[in-house]
Amino acid sequence: MKNIVILISGGGSNMAAIVRAAQREDWASRYGARICAVISNRADAKGLDIARDAGIATEVLDHKDFASRDAFDEALAALIERHAPAHQSTLVVLAGFMRILTPPFVQRYAGRLVNIHPSLLPAFTGLHTHQRALDAGCKFAGATVHQVTAELDHGQILAQAVVPILSGDSADTLAARVLTQEHQIYPRAVAQLLQTL
Ligand code: GRF
Q1: Domain residue spans in the chain?
Q2: Which residue is closest in CA terms to ligand 1's atom 14?
């Protein structure tokens, strides 16, 4: 069995899109894959309810309970491996997970750790991507699914979607347009990666 662990911090709409695709496309029989846990670093993440309603195991690991980034990441890996034993194939999917991961954690899951970022990377790494795209006068924006490396928002690009920036767009209207595309490309990219595990 291939295990998928999804890490979230908030609304979890990308996680929900992946859960829906896994059900609709029957990833269990098609790829021998199951979403075995959703882990949030925030207890109030709305996505936790969505995961619970879908019958997926949920966990909260609050980074504020740890003295260092290393200690948190070690506990996170242990929690992941409680749900997804290390001897099986595991894909760790960051879906709005608002934590920078340490090099040892990234190394441990190298090639099996992916993220979605709301910009057309390599443009606009980091935060406030939509406002920055508007401020720069960009005519197009989008989202990128990429392998996670130790450098923030770098790593091999696996999928991208492009949306137009329309006159009158605010960061919020642009974010909403980009998000609908995120929900399309992320499940597809995860499904493709599952076939290589
Ligand atoms: C998405 O825009 C994602 O690209 C970014 O954070 C947002 C998370 O949204 N990293 P959700 O939690 O998946 O609804």
Answers
A1: 2-194
A2: 13
For residue 82, the model assigns a pLDDT of 97
Q: How far is the CA of 53 from the centre of ligand 1 (A)?
A: 20
Ligand 1 atom closest to Cα of 179? 2
33 backbone dihedrals φ, ψ, rounded to 5°: -120, 145
Instruction: List, as one string, the DSSP characters of 61-87.
Output: --GGGSSSHHHHHHHHHHHHHHHS-TT
- Ligand 1 atom, smallest distance to 98 CA: 10
* Ranges of residues in the chain whose predicted pLDDT is under 70: none
Active site residue 117: yes
Instruction: Give the tens place of pLDDT for each residue, 37-86.
Output: 999 999 999 999 999 999 999 999 999 999 999 999 999 999 999 999 98
Ligand 1 atom index nearest CA of 97: 10
d(CA 51, CA 160): 25
- Say what the pLDDT of residue 185 is: 98
Catalytic residue among 63, 83, 117, 183: 117
Q: Whose CA is nearest to atom 8 of ligand 1?
A: 96
Indicate the CATH number of 2-194 among 3.40.50.720, 3.40.50.300, 3.40.50.170, 3.20.20.140: 3.40.50.170
